[in-house]
Amino acid sequence: MIKEPVYWTMRNGQKINVDDMDVNHLRNTLKMLIRAKQVATPVKPKFEIHGEIAQNFLEQMLEEDYSNDEWYGF
């Protein structure tokens, strides 16, 4: 069984055979893919809010948290 080469397209547009990549390049490529996956994957809450009062309380707390970020320059 003959394996076809797999190419990675680098940032500068150059294609490189994955088998020819050195260990550091492979490591950096893997880290980049992991970071991209983490950004693209929405975080599922670990709890559910039941009831209108609880939902309103949560929204109020989040608004207060985000409004305080202005003071710190975030």
Summary, kept brief:
The protein is mainly alpha-helical and 74 residues long. It has helices at residues 23-40, 52-72, and strands at 7-9, 15-17.
| Total of helices | 2
N to C succession of SSEs: EEHH
Helix content: 40-55%
Total beta strand runs: 2
Average predicted confidence as pLDDT: 81
How does the SSE layout of this entry go?
Blueprint: E1 7-9, E2 15-17, H1 23-40, H2 52-72
Antiparallel strand pairs: 1-2
Q: Could you characterize the architecture of this molecule?
A:
The protein has two helices and two strands, in the order E-E-H-H. The chain is mainly alpha-helical. The protein has one domain (7-72). The protein has a two-stranded antiparallel sheet.
Write a concise keyword list for the protein shown above.
8% strand, 74 residues, 2 strands, elongated, 2 helices, mainly alpha
